[in-house]
Amino acid sequence: MVLEAGKATGEQRQLLLNEHKEKHFMAGEVVRDVIMGVSDGLTVPFALAAGLSGARAPSSLVLTAGLAEVAAGAISMGLGGYLAAKSEADHYAREMKREQEEIINVPDTEAAEIAEILSEYGLGPTEYGPVVSALRKNPQAWLEFMMKFELGLEKPDPRRALWSALTIAVAYIIGGMVPLSPYMFVREAHKAMFTSIGVTLLALLFFGFVKGHMTGNRPFLSAVQTTFIGALASAAAYAIAKAVQTV
Asked: Predominant location of this chain (predicted)?
């Protein structure tokens, strides 16, 4: 039996929703934080290690400098993620307060804005009129409607700032340990560098492929782009170290 959503009872609507499960990816913010942390973690320590190896630094020095960079980078990236998420939450709170004041002080103007928004979706006065009336009777729903459809703002998770900081920092550490791990086992930095290059390029390929798959882009193209950026950064650092050494 096929029912129109507008005519179905609450129980029937719930039945329809239970029968149809949409497969949408809902963890975009977490994935963005992981991508940010891992991509920088793989690239920056990789370039640093390659540069120091080019300057003929011993493995112990490369490892020490690399671990210090990973620690500082994780703190810096995590703090940046925290401040970005906190700024987003603060912006939402300011706009919500301003919108709430407008609903109280100029309700007719705000109601006209609801009508204008709904008319953009093809609804006529007889169709959006009851919606406007219903929202005016429910101030909280009215406020949430205006925040989402007028300002285009989604209510942020109050725990978002802390989780963003932790996710980025941990992802950065995981990514940063990949290019540094060969220096823990190979005493000669020059030999460790070639192992690091191979391991890191494979990690960049894998990470780029997964990133492309999860973000809806072409996985193979994403893998090539990610690997190329990491290789370019390390090659530049190595070349600069060699050039400085010859001066």
From this structure: membrane
Both structure tokens of 43: 């690239």
CA neighbours within 13 Å on the CB side: how many for 224? 4
For residue 109, give both structure tokens.
């103007």
Q: How far apart are CA 188 and CA 13, in angstroms?
A: 68
Whether this prediction's pTM lies above 0.85 is answered by no
Number of residues assigned to the chain: 247
- Please check whether residue 207 is in contact with residue 226, taking contact to mean a CB–CB distance below 8 angstroms: yes
Please report, to the nearest 10 degrees, the dihedral formed by the alpha carbons of residues 227, 232, 233, 238 taken in order. 130
Q: Which of 13-16's residues contact partners 24+ apart within 8 Å by CB, and which partners?
A: none
Residue range 23-64, pLDDT digits in tens: 544 456 777 888 888 888 888 888 888 878 777 778 888 899
